[in-house]
Amino acid sequence: MAAEYGITASLAGNATKVIPSQEYFNKFVLDMTDGIEDMGGQRWQLVLCLLAAWLLVFVCLVKGVKSSGKVVYFTALFPYVVLTILLIRGATLEGAKEGIKFYMIPDFKKLGEAAVWGDAAKQIFYSLGPAWGGLITLASYNKFKNNCYRDALIVSVGNCGTSIFAGFAIFSILGFMAHELNVPVGEVVDSGPGLAFVAYPEAITRLPISPLWSFLFFFMIITLGLDSQFTMMETVTTAILDHFVKLRKYKSWVILGTCTLWFLLGLTMTGRGGVYVLTLIDNYAAGWSLMILALIECIIVSWLYDAPNVISIRTKRFGNNVYEMLDRLPVPFFLWQIMWKFVTPVVLIFILFFTWIKYTPLTYGTYEYPGWANGLGWLMALTSVMVVPVMAVITVVTKPATTTIWQLFLPTPEYVPAATLKESRQTALTTHSPKQAPVMPVSYSNLAGPGYYNQDKPPAYSNVIKDAESHM
């Protein structure tokens, strides 16, 4: 048969082996063009999938954070069930041991590669969510006295633990696939979409009752995607509604408009050349720019927000805020201050410069992106970062003449527990008629004098309220 088509032994030996799932993904699902220069037409199947995804997000979020919170109980816990099932099944397959060994035994030579450090940082930023705004947005729905310290520890440890646990489930299957294909584990699949849509589906087809495993795996992928979208949508819509307060009574329309806009933007990635756009955005828009934003947050909170003690290692003002919420300071608080002021910024700066020095143009498989595409990627990354200095300049230029730059780093008057605000209002009503009683900004960070910051602990709220009343 081979001779009839002119296929010789040497030609067959030099041929590139392509697994069926990769052929299906590239040639049928994506129907890929040769590069980003040729975007091709839209894939209506992908457009419908994108539309269904955004409709699902809208339905889950239209009733607010309470409704999405109920959905998250399922979408956050279901992946653990599937991962456990896949791990148990994968551990019984031939070749799983080699996959686990590849996962557990480090290659220390890789530590000299900038891409490894950059990928590790992106993994933490993607999975844990710092600097995206989602953590701050969702935390804003907590009560003032919520134990944020406990929550931060649980989320951080749980995130890393989940990543390690998922690694065992994934590499046991990859080890089985490597055994089946008779190739090293490291050559089974590249990073990126290939792992979720090529390697794992290929391995699942080789399992008994493969339709069941396929359903569980892809349903897990959907739930994980929904969790990420819920957080991002809440971040954007909350920012819009907080800035344009009058739109709050039209929240459903704001969510619908945001979902519609993001659906339209997503159409750039549902065409035949969409995977090249996806890879470009994935590598540039949420890479080193995210680390810069995290670095700015660290510097502002641990240094500039604590301006009266800027030359000291002690972050008194931020420490006082933590004490307000927890009624205690995390122990040992001194070590946390060292992490905020020195360790985290230094690590981020190291990864940033290491990544830039070792920068290489973007590729997708064997395809190399043209210069203009890499330039567009850099522009996307800079756009998100430049918002910070631009808004900082606007704030300084438009500030009242009596306000100093350092005062811009103080909390707003709204920074106060709701219970304290209610108490202060009731106190005001006892000494004023209802029409004359003012609404007092009783944040101790604004009204308490500089002497308060010389204390190791913040003042009692009762004292702060008395000081506020003296201003009336």
Describe this structure in words.
The chain has 472 residues and is an all-alpha fold. The chain is 65% helix and 1% strand. Strands 1-2 form a two-stranded antiparallel sheet. Helix 2 (20-29) packs across helix 9 and helix 10 (210-243) packs across helix 11. The radius of gyration is 27 Å and the shape is globular. Mean pLDDT is 79; it is low at 432-472.
Q: Layout of SSEs?
A:
Layout: H1 9-14, H2 20-29, H3 44-61, H4 65-91, H5 96-104, H6 114-128, H7 134-139, H8 148-181, H9 193-205, H10 210-243, H11 251-266, H12 274-284, H13 288-304, H14 316-326, H15 333-357, E1 363-364, E2 367-368, H16 371-398, H17 418-431, H18 444-447, H19 461-470
Antiparallel strand pairs: 1-2
Helix pairs in contact: 2-9, 3-10, 3-11, 4-8, 4-10, 5-8, 6-15, 8-9, 9-10, 10-11, 12-16, 13-15, 13-16
Kindly summarize this structure in a few lines.
The chain contains 19 helices and two strands. The chain has helices at 9-14, 20-29, 44-61, 65-91, 96-104, 114-128, 134-139, 148-181, 193-205, 210-243, 251-266, 274-284, 288-304, 316-326, 333-357, 371-398, 418-431, 444-447, 461-470, and strands at residues 363-364, 367-368.
The pLDDT mean sits at 79
Instruction: Name the strands of the widest sheet in spatial order.
Output: 1-2
Give the helix proportion (percent range): 55-70%
Shape: globular
Percent of residues in β-strands: under 5%
Largest sheet: 2 strands, antiparallel
* Uncertain residue ranges: 432-472
Separation of termini?
Answer: 96 Å
